[in-house]
Fold this protein.
Amino acid sequence: MRRVTLTQFLIEQQRAGRTTPELRLLIEVVARAVKAISVNVSKGALAGVLGEAGTDNVQGEAQKKLDVIANEILLQANEWGGHLAAMASEEVEEVHQIPFDYPKGGYLLLFDPLDGSSNIDVNISVGTIFSVLRNPARKDGGDPTEQDFLQPGRDQVAAGYALYGPSTLLILTVGNGVHGFTLDREMGSFVYTHPFMTVPPETQEFAINASNARFWEPPVQRYVTELQAGKTGPRGKDFNMRWVASMVADVHRILTRGGIFMYPLDEKCRDKGGKLRLMYEANPMAMIVEQAGGAATTGRERIMDVQPSKLHQRVPVVLGSAAEVERVTKYHLEG
Ligand code: AHG
Ligand code: MN
Ligand code: MN
């Protein structure tokens, strides 16, 4: 069987007019950084990368050593290639400018360097999430500002995630379906293993942190209660529940065998607008899920139509199999 690598795949996409050489380079560089993060994640205690970094990030969350390492790897890998105008990261408060001695390109890269970092120390899957936007042409030719990043998710030109699980996967969309690659650790290359991934429309699984049940809004209470009622309830079938607490792992399961993922608005996170971050968690995952035939809303509107007002903005997230997401959204709009 002919093995297609990520490089080959991207060159073919470029020939078909679906990516630019600059976007191809950007994705290749992100993939290279993902390999380096994968090495660090898999060495664990042997490389002394577990545990707390002893610092807090912009959101006031304690950083793990691997949050800091993954962030540094992504920033450094993407600074010198000439494909980016600037970057933004969960772990960095302000826009990260490209050092002045490197050329600048036409794209903005946003990322959650390590998603699910509470799982690192217990050796459960973590990931990286990224989103690519065009840099709006600046008349004054100055450095990109936060304002330049505040584009709705529908304007993303590419999105993806890496999952550091039993194998390391890179899942990618450039607006032409969702494509998955498995890292061949011996060869050091990503091999095209999952063409045109789709979210199965029928589902019997849901993912939500049920410990927050008492804080949920009535529409979410109603929806989950109906699922829990199983065969004897209004849905007439039994549902199973999974919650990894790594969004990447939960979304990947949904991309593989269907389901719905929810981190809704609740009384605990209401003041912040939600738990998950719009620009580098919700938007890229929404693009992937929609490209795979699923749906993604805040419970009230399509995630990719939300007009961002700040870089580290949070939003409620409901995504997965289209019919289920529609039902949850309908319950919100009725209530
Ligand atoms: P991060 O590690 O990047 O801060 O993201 C963690 C997120 C997401 O991956 C996951 O779905 C959610 O937080 C888990 O939250 P709970 O611990 O509240 O379940
Ligand atoms: Mn995250
Ligand atoms: Mn993170």
Notes: The chain is about 30% helix and 25% strand. The chain has a mean pLDDT of 96.
